[in-house]
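Need tokens for this chain, all 133 residues.
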Amino acid sequence: MVLRSMRFPALCLLFACESGGAVDTASPGQGRIIASGPALDIGFGSRLATDGTRVFAGSPFGARVDELTASGVLKPAGRGGAGSLFGAGLAMIDGGLWVGAPGSGQLSQDGEIVASEAGLGGVVTMGPGGWVA
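Here are the structure tokens for all 133 residues:
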């Protein structure tokens, strides 16, 4: 996976994904991090969220979210039930990680379910009136 800053710091673009492995930090200062997902075909990196310090990668087909730590290690940040598509929607809002799981119709903030409705959570963002999912 290659993360590159775009016009907005919280938005990133996914170019490729491979299984297993560590982070390539061979080119520091280039504004680029290369990391490999924990398993094939789980959708690792399909959704990304950052607060400028922490980076989270959603794997909706594996129903998991991982944090890419500063040391280059992938640390599990949460799991959803089978078929929940947990991590299909990710957002960092006011320092909290919001995770959408449209398969189970749930939106959670830091592990607490805050809303439930069929299909909810495919995309999560912050709008003028609050969160939107």
